Amino acid sequence: MPIVVNLDVMLARRKMQLQELAEKVDITIANLSVLKTGKAKAVRFSTLEAICKALNCQPGDILEFVEEEE
């Protein structure tokens, strides 16, 4: 998939655990884990906004478009 989720990178930069983020954004760890592993098919803007607020970052820090090689 050409959209890469860099949630694990941002968590490491902020020295924050997934559980702490889940508590701050009021989302289950299971749902955040799906997003973190890139298995999510979509993300709500409200969820992305809450994550960015908790991690003090921009949406582009979390989501990245990577061109697929042919």
TrEMBL record:
Top-level taxon of the source organism: Bacteria
Q: Which Pfam families match?
A: HTH_26 (PF13443)
What InterPro entries does the record point to?
Answer: Cro/C1-type_HTH, Lambda_DNA-bd_dom_sf
SUPFAM superfamilies from the entry?
Answer: lambda repressor-like DNA-binding domains
Signal peptide residue numbers: none
Please name the GO terms that the record assigns under molecular function. Answer: DNA binding
* CDD domains linked: HTH_XRE
Where do the HTH cro/C1-type domain residues begin and end?
A: 13-62
The name under which this protein is listed is Transcriptional regulator, XRE family
Q: What is the organism field in this record?
A: Haliscomenobacter hydrossis (strain ATCC 27775 / DSM 1100 / LMG 10767 / O)
